[in-house]
Structure formats: C-alpha cells, structure tokens
Design goal:
mainly alpha
Length: about 80
C-alpha cells in the first residue's frame, strides 16, 4: 500500500466580516404613507366591528372593507 498524505485545513483570514446567516431575505421597508394608512384601517376596523357583531368574521371583514372605502378616515378619500 502506498502511503497516504493528508492535507490539513488552514484557517482563512477574515476581513472583519462575519458569516452570512441563512434565512429569509430582509423585506423592503414600506413607505410611511402605506404604513400609516394600514394603521388607520386597522383602527377603523377595530372601532366599527361592533356594528356587524351578528355576522361571522369573514362577512364582518367584507362589510368593514366596504365601509372603509367610503369612509372619511381613509387617506385615499381625503385628497
């Protein structure tokens, strides 16, 4: 049998950067107007959900969405 040679791994020098972590890529930040509109819509839904308490959740969402589209609190309707 022929003698085998083994290579030993030499540690690589790092330039100060760490190891990149695997996972989801970071989401792009939404603009502030979209974020503000979403917050206002969620608050509107929460405040007005009692109007449709006799409906199931899915139907409540549909009705609240219709109301939101015509609401004066909706930023799209304020322009």
């Amino acid at each position: 049998m022929a003698p085998t040679t083994t290579k030993t791994a030499t540690p690589k020098a790092t330039g100060g950067a760490g190891v990149k972590k695997a996972g989801r890529p970071k989401a792009k930040a939404k603009n502030s107007k979209a974020r503000t509109a979403m917050i206002k819509m969620q608050a509107y839904f929460k405040d007005n959900r009692s109007k449709y308490k006799d409906l199931d959740f899915k139907e409540q969402q549909k009705e609240l969405g219709k109301d939101w589209k015509t609401s004066s609190e909706n930023p799209k309707n304020q322009a």
